[in-house]
Structures are given as structure tokens and as C-alpha cells.
Amino acid sequence: xxxxxxxxxxxxxxxxxxxxxxxxxxxxxxxxxxxxxxxxxxxxxxxxxxxxxxxxxxxxxxxxxxxxxxxxxxxxxxxxxxxxxxxxxxxxxxxxxxxxxxxxxxxxxxxxxxxxxxxxxxxxxxxxxxxxxxxxxxxxxxxxxxxxxxxxxxxxxxxxxxxxxxxxxxxxxxxxxxxxxxxxxxxxxxxxxxxxxxxxxxxxxxxxxxxxxxxxxxxxxxxxxxxxxxxxxxxxxxxxxxxxxxxxxxxxxxxxxxxxxxxxxxxxxxxxxxxxxxxxxxxxxxxxxxxxxxxxxxxxxxxxxxxxxxxxxxxxxxxxxxxxxxxxxxxxxxxxxxxxxxxxxxxxxxxxxxxxxxxxxxxxxxxxxxxxxxxxxxxxxxxxxxxxxxxxxxxxxxxxxxxxxxxxxxxxxxxxxxxxxxxxxxxxxxxxxxxxxxxxxxxxxxxxxxxxxxxxxxxxxxxxxxxxxxxxxxxxxxxxxx
Amino acid sequence: xxxxxxxxxxxxxxxxxxxxxxxxxxxxxxxxxxxxxxxxxxxxxxxxxxxxxxxxxxxxxxxxxxxxxxxxxxxxxxxxxxxxxxxxxxxxxxxxxxxxxxxxxxxxxxxxxxxxxxxxxxxxxxxxxxxxxxxxxxxxxxxxxxxxxxxxxxxxxxxxxxxxxxxxxxxxxxxxxxxxxxxxxxxxxxxxxxxxxxxxxxxxxxxxxxxxxxxxxxxxxxxxxxxxxxxxxxxxxxxxxxxxxxxxxxxxxxxxxxxxxxxxxxxxxxxxxxxxxxxxxxxxxxxxxxxxxxxxxxxxxxxxxxxxxxxxxxxxxxxxxxxxxxxxxxxxxxxxxxxxxxxxxxxxxxxxxxxxxxxxxxxxxxxxxxxxxxxxxxxxxxxxxxxxxxxxxxxxxxxxxxxxxxxxxxxxxxxxxxxxxxxxxxxxxxxxxxxxxxxxxxxxxxxxxxxxxxxxxxxxxxxxxxxxxxxxxxxxxxxxxxxx
Lengths: 482, 484
Ligand SMILES: [Zn+2]
Known about the structure:
The complex is a heterodimer.
Chain A: H1 8-17, H2 22-40, E1 43-46, H3 48-63, E2 75-79, H4 106-113, E3 117-122, H5 156-164, E4 169-174, H6 180-186, E5 189-192, E6 212-217, H7 220-230, E7 260-264, H8 274-289, E8 293-297, H9 302-320, H10 338-349, H11 352-364, H12 370-392, E9 397-401, H13 417-422, H14 428-433, E10 437-445, E11 448-455, H15 461-475
Parallel strand pairs in A: 2-3, 2-4, 7-8, 7-9
Antiparallel strand pairs in A: 1-3, 4-6, 5-6, 5-10, 9-11, 10-11
Helix pairs in contact in A: 2-3, 5-6, 7-15, 9-11, 9-12
Chain B: E1 4-12, H1 53-65, E2 70-71, E3 74-75, E4 78-81, E5 91-94, E6 105-114, E7 117-130, E8 134-137, E9 148-151, E10 158-164, H2 171-187, E11 199-206, E12 213-218, H3 221-240, E13 248-253, E14 258-261, E15 274-275, E16 282-283, H4 286-295, H5 300-311, H6 315-322, H7 325-337, H8 341-358, H9 370-381, H10 387-400, H11 404-411, H12 419-432, H13 434-439, H14 444-457, H15 464-477
The complex binds zinc ion.
Residues 19, 22, 24, 37-38, 40-41, 156 of chain B line the site of zinc ion.
């Protein structure tokens, strides 16, 4: 097994035992990045020197007989909307160019405490708004499986770095599918945690009430390992759950014979692409043959979930993005007055998709419309949650295609916002409901992977990780670096 | 012509240790610019607010003290959006009724004692919100300074916003209301409102026939009365000339004592309020409110009533003490050491406050304390010195912190009470001032002059009223009849 394909669990174990030098391993990952970045563009910032220095420290600690932690030496890629102290934090936007946060996100603190080596900040759709990583101001990321195609988004850089072998683990964030979508398209495993399980402190907000930071990895054990490090209550985040903790990262031992799976009809039938649906069914039939009970169920509110999601997300986004005005940090355009400077900065600093969502979000929150749109969307949101929880009372997990289409070609979707938005049809319900969901590789279509998404009850991560493990055993799809 | 006045008051919760949503110290006054800041109050991307529970508790206490009939079951914070350089997130975290949000309390009232009657001023709502940063103009003001600096030390300080219904009828009533509110805020240990900028008021005022005019950002209680009086005069003059008064916003210039129109926006701004998704609603269970009721201290009105009923103070004296918590505490501390309510009340509310004002001092910046004041009161009460001497001695004690008993002993200041002795001094003075004696029949000032002379001879140790009687008697004895 090549070093860049090695699971994180093994890297950490070997580094801790002194059987693998963190410096050798990290150098190899960085070389790999150097070779692939020209084509893939997974990173906005590569932290070559910092990563090597950190790896040296890890090796020295091991040499002194200390235990650097559960992620000892492991190369972790961090999405560029998560604050790492002193490292440029662009969110894929020109407006944050040059902004270096003076603090670490809570998840970054936790990574560092467990001995992780942060190798870089990964590319993303601008402010996480997109499903293809094409709206980044730093150029699109390409799918390592098929360079003509997108890696999904918005955490496309994180997924691509895993598939390219330029990272062993990656953090993404998921507002409406931004972890699960790139996981599906890059042949990786991605978990969107229960809302509140992982601290959002240090995550640059897009839509606060929907999003979570989550782990991405090339196999289930790695996914659980990274999750176990970042999960847990954080007093700095008021939406953080008190009873969150590492117990949520356990991989439940799921007996397939006792597993009841509900297949959401709307997420495997038209308009879902037939070839994608076929791969999902292929996986489900394998689970069935292992003894699982697979029934079709219906989630009729799916059609309302998407508009409700976009209303909530855009409203919150328009508010969150108000602070980027050139006054305190990041990009500043010249202007004769403060007002002029602000207008010019925002005009030049934001891309089109971001501006569109700010405009729509601002409109939604206007005094005359807030009840008509925002408050109504919140009602749909509660209804979606109720409907999903009711299905989950009869089935352990719900499943469907992660993405309704195979990985699009670059430029194919991003120009038409409606086409772009409908890509999220399967992923947004979990964000609206605040429940955990995992995307696992299901097969290959058009030379790039597609995924199946399992949703579970609140705090049901151990079950989802167990199901993920079953799928991994069923498909044998793991540790794939292309 | 009665005015219709409503107030919107912002009170900084200066008694809190930290800001409303972060752990930065709340005491920013005098700190170098931008030193009491952190990612949260600078609004850095990804930093998250955490509510200071103490601020919520204080707001509930105020709501109870202001008789609010409706206290929210859940505390919800909303975002109010507008672009301004002192606002690091370009939205302010505040409270708002709508879109799922609500003020922490609504529908209260405050009673004012007006000439024997009681006037009820309704409170529309109370909000908890964050203060923005502060703009610093390097030269001149907002209109003339070539550059502006921003100090975010104030950013995120906890504010209470109290909005009244338009129930006030005169500038004086507005002042009385604010004095009462200030007293309550101090009794609840929410704020020290003597701190610069800790209370800011926006006032709405209209006269019959005119539209509502808003005067923004008035810095103190006294200034509110002045600004509103100015508006009454200005609006009355306009109306009497038949001119129209349109809705406008004005700014109070305390240096020149005038209000001036502010640049008006063409349309009403839409603040796009919605509940802050970073701050889940905080439940306020009934039991918590009940326990807050039990914790409410005695409030100014009750204290004043007690001073009248149990201490025998006049209403005016009781009011003057009760409206100033520290003064009232000082008073009661002194009484614990020596019981002479009326004497101590006068010494504090009249003599001591006069001393502070004359020397431009704030309480605590002088050296008087309840121990010293009790000794002083005892000297007067037991007639060792005269009240007049007591007053002079109080000034000295406040200035130097000396023990009044020792001073009286050392400097032989005991009151001159022997009429015999005093009469001899009076005779001597009258003898020595024939001109004043000659004038005394026509000019009462001549009598005052003679009394003054005697007082000087006795170094203030005599009772002025007694001296006066002796002087008049002496003059009469000499055939000079003086009108009383
Ligand atoms: Zn702070």
C-alpha cells in the first residue's frame, strides 16, 4: 500500500509507535500534492513549511516517549471556511483575501490536541454557496477521478484532496449537502453530524441554523476517528448540544439481519438519474442479501424542502455576509467615502452566486415578506422534520441517492442557478431536520463515483457509521486514491 | 399647551463584569482604544456569541420593578441590520417583536408623585441589546473631521432599552421620570449611571397641532429637560406663527443649548429583523421569575415612604434621599451609629450635597463617612456645637477626614450658650459700631451687620438666632426700635 493510500488509523498507530516518521509521511503527502495540484486545485493554501515543522515536533514528541494523540502525524486538510490561527481564511472569496484569523476554530484546537498535521486549506464554493466548487474565486477544483468533471461541493477541495491522496483526512462543512455531495463524487465517506454535535465556533457562517462541520475520509474507521476528535459540547457555541461527545463516534456493530432500511422513493426515482439510481439499488440489494429488510417509503415533502431550505439559507446568508465591508479585514476597494468604499468592496469582492443569495436573502427578510417567506419556510422545516422522524420511527435508517445526477462536467450546471439548486434535493432534508446523514460510495458513473445517502435519527451517528461499515464491506470500496 | 412626550432610554449595564456576548471586561472606560476586544465583539467571521446570563437576570429584575405585566417565556435575540462602521457585524443583536422574536418584557408602568397625586407612565417594552463601538473624530465632529477612528472597546457592552408610551406631559415630568428610573436602575445594581455615556435618551415630543419630533442621543437627565424645554419653546413659536411642524429627527447640541435638524433619510429603513440563529431561545420559567421577585430589593418609592412614616422626614427630604441610592445608604448607615433622622437627613441632602456640588466632587471622592457623620450629628444633637458650626465642620470633615470630636476639643469650638457671656460680647460690639446702631432703625441690613460682627467675635460658636435676639434687645435698650 502506498503511503498516500494508508488509512489514518494505521498512520496514527505507526507514528505513535515510532514505526513511521511523521516527517517522511507528511513529506510524501506534500509531494503528492505538488504533483496533483496543477490539475486538481484542491487547495487554496498549502501549508508546506508549517506542516513539516509540525511533523518534526510530532516525531520529537514520540522520540521523547510522549503520545502525540489519536491523530499523531496524520495529514488533515481543512476547508477554507474554518479558522486556523494565522493562516489565510478566504472561504473561496476574494473579499476575504488576506484575512488571517487570530484564533483557531474549536475543531482545529481539537485536531491539534490529538497530534494532527494540518496540510492546507481546501478550495470550496465561495462562502460554501454551490455544489460544484466552481464558484470559488481561486479557480474550480477538478475531480481527480475524471478531470473533466466537478468534485461536487461546496467542500470539493476536501473531497478532491482525499481522492488525489494529498490528504489522509479532511474536514468539510455541510449546510445543505456540502460534505455529502463531494463525498459522493470523489468516492469518499462523508458525515453530516446531528445539528449541534460539533462546535461551529470558527466556522465562517453561511446559514447558521443548518450547517455543521463534519469529517470526510476514505473509509469508515477513518471517518469515525476524525469524528471522535471533533465531536463534543463547546461552551463557545450556544447551539452546541450538551450531551454531545465521543460516544457519538462509535461504530455500532449493526447486524444486517435486524436492520430495517427505508428507501425514499422520491430519491431513487425520476427525476433522479437512472444510472445513479441503479448503483444505489445495487448497493441496497447487497445489503438485502446480507439480511437487511429494505422497504420503499415516501417523503412527499421533499418538493417543499428545497425551496424552504433556500429561503432559510439565503436569509441567514444575507445577514451573515453583511460584515464583509472592507473596514476591518480582508479585501478593500478604494472609495472617497466610507459608503462608497463599502459598496465598491462588496461589488468587487463577492462573486455572482454570493450576490444573488445576498439579494434574495435581503428581500426575504424585508418587513413585508419575512412572515410570507421566512416564517413560512420555518413551518415547512418543522413539517419536514416531523415527516422524517415519523419515517424513522418505523425504519432504522432512510436511504436514497446522495446526488440526483452523476458528477457534472465543469460549467455544465453552475451557470443556471435553478439547475444548480436542484442538485441538493436529496441532501437538504437532513439539514432542515437537523439529523445526521452519511454518504457512502455506491458505484461509478461516467468515470466518477456516485454515492448513497443514509439518514438516521438525531444522535444516530453510531448507527450510521455502522451502516457505513456494512456498505464498505458490501462494496469493498475503500482507500481509493486515483 | 400640553406637550406629548415619549422616551426611549438606553442604559448600559455597567455593573456586569463582562460584555453581553463575550468575556471581554465590561469596564472599558479609560482603557486604550481596541484593547477590550476579542473575535466575538469584533464580529470576526466564525466567532459566536454566548449570552451573559447575568444580563438577562438584571433585565428581568428591571421588568419586575417596572411592573411589566408581560415577561417573555423565552428570551429571543434578533438581528437588526444596518451598515455603519461602529457596528462590526453590520447588524446589532437586539430584541424585536416579530418574525418569532419578542422583547424580554412589555406592558409595564412607573408611578410619578406629582404634587399630592400619582401619575402613571406606561412602559411599552424593555429590550436587551448590544452597544456598538465608538467613532472617534480626530478633529472637530462628524461634519468636519477629515478622518474617523473606530474604538470597539464599547462594542458588545450590554444595554437595556426602555421605551415608554407617550404619557409624559412636560419636560419636567420627563426629568422626574428619568430620575425615578435612574434610581431604580441603581437600586437593582444594574448600573452606575453617573458614568459618562451610561444613559442615553431619545425623546419624542409633539404639541397639539404639530407632528412628532424626535430628539436623538441626549446624554443626561438634566440635558433631557433642557432639550425638551427648548423644543417646547421652538415648536410653540412655530405653531403660533401658523407654521407647520413636520415629522423630523433632531440632534441636541448641549454646548449651544439648541436642537438641530439631522440629515433625514428619504425612506424609512428596513432593518430586516429575524431571530439570531446563533442564539437559541433561553427559557424563562415561571419559578425563575418568582425567585427574582423574592430577590427584589426595597425600591425607591417604598424606601421613601418608610423614611416619611418611620423616620418622620418631610416628603421632599425623603425623596431627595431615596432617589439617590448611595446617599440613602449613607443616611441609613449613619443612623445605625446615631439615631437622629431629621438632622442627619438635612446634613446629607442639604449640606453635604451642597458641599459636593460646590467642589465639583462625586460621592466617594471626599472623606466623609458614616462614622464621622454620626459623631458630628451627635455633637449637634447634644448641643455641644450649633447647627451652623455643624455645617462648617461637615465641610472640614469631608475635605480632611478629621474626627469632629477631636477638633471641637482641640480648638475649643464648644457652642457659646451662656446668655450672660454673649450679652457682654453684644454690648461690646454695639458700643464699637455707633454708625450701624444709628442706621439700624431704618436699615435692617445694619442689624445683620451687627449680628455678623458678634458671630465673628465668637468664632461661629453662637446660635445666630440667639445672637440676633440679644442684638435687638440691646438696641431697644438704647432706644433704637427695630422691626422684626
Ligand atoms: Zn469581546
